[in-house]
TrEMBL record:
Organism: Clostridium amylolyticum
CDD domains to which the protein is assigned, alphabetical: NAT_SF
Protein name: Acetyltransferase (GNAT) domain-containing protein
SUPFAM superfamilies, per database record: Acyl-CoA N-acyltransferases (Nat)
Pfam family of the protein (one): Acetyltransf_10
InterPro entries associated with the record: Acyl_CoA_acyltransferase (IPR016181), GNAT_dom (IPR000182), N-acetyltrans/Recomb-assoc (IPR052564)
Organism phylogeny: Bacteria, Bacillati, Bacillota, Clostridia, Eubacteriales
Length: 147
């Protein structure tokens, strides 16, 4: 498996994976309005997508997972692994590239309820109870690089 930066030419494939995984695993926990908000503000929002540093996990030419950051690599904005490849270490390898490129001592994420345990296994801790903004449910979390 190879982790490499996703450029604008490869972004459509990455967003297709993000959308498919979101709909399968996360959308069932959201209201219809929350799903539409996620689509509108994230996967169909070119300004948002242009602000991200995006990396993919590839097996040959097949994209297995995506992680994307903003704020100089200090906030995880997207983190999705194809369901057929969960619990195979792909997420951990994607997170490693974030650690290598982050410029701060802490990395933040607003985790979906579905992904909280994944982030806990990576070393994140909750910093607030579940919140909801525009029908998007999330748990604010932080990872301290100095432990």
């Amino acid at each position: 498996m190879e982790i490499k930066k996703i450029d604008r030419n490869q972004r459509d494939t990455a967003i297709q994976l993000v959308s498919a995984v979101f709909m399968q695993f996360e959308a069932p926990d959201y209201s219809v309005e929350g799903v539409e908000t996620f689509k509108r503000t994230t996967i169909y929002n070119n300004d948002f997508l242009d602000s991200l540093n995006m990396y993919g996990a590839y097996e040959s030419e097949t994209l297995l997972g995506v992680i994307a950051t903003r704020n100089k690599g200090n906030h995880i904005a997207l983190f999705f692994v194809d369901g057929k490849h969960h619990r195979q270490g792909i997420g951990k390898k994607l997170f490693q590239i974030v650690l290598e490129n982050s410029t701060a001592k802490e990395i933040t994420v607003n985790s979906s309820p579905y992904a909280v345990e994944v982030y806990h296994r990576l070393g994140f801790v909750d910093i607030a109870p579940e919140e909801k903004t525009n029908e998007i449910r999330y748990i604010p979390m932080v990872y301290s690089k100095v432990q």
